[in-house]
Model the fold of this input.
Amino acid sequence: MIALARFQITGYVRSYRALPQAIVVLLLMMLVFEQWPPGDRQVYPGMIAGSFTDVAAFLVPIGAWAARTLLDTEPDVQRDLSLLAAGDHGRAALSGLLGAFAVNAALAVVLAGFPVAQSVIFGLGPGVIVSGLVLLILCAAAATAFGAWTTRAIMPTTMAALITLIGGSVLLVVLSMGPLRMISVPIIDMVRAGHRGPAALTSALPSLALRLALWTAAVGGAYVAARRLRP
Done:
């Protein structure tokens, strides 16, 4: 399964389909992270902790896009060959999710670079760094599970896939603001906790991490089950 995931990642990179997501990530870093904390050192902690949660929130739609692109890189015939290599629809689906998560985890590490550097320079301590990295990795996993549902193996047409990707990203944000936020990715709660400062972020981490893990497990598990029924 790991070998198949590595094969899919190689095809994704060599086909240059990774370039759009890489460009968006670089533009995001240039536009958002060029703002260095102001002169008042009391503002630093909230801005830096907020940077972690801001990029984690942006990673959800970007990572879903990257996951969809990677999983759709294979032509249908090649996907059939991968299925034969995996020996099972469920294993083939899991290998695809593993490869897409590896790509999104790499994007998360890149996005974490600037807030991690700020945290070290301004002496925020390891707590905010660990909290930010955990949320970024969990958001990468959630984005992978969400993006998998917009792939050719699930969606009947490309237009339906794009509508699901864009509309689903908006819906996740809307749901996270209302009474149904417990069934959505906690985007707004995560951003609010980050902008309240390092202490609020670290105290909110267990709840946020649990919600992200449960959501990812439910959506990812449903995707694997759907692939078994509709290979």
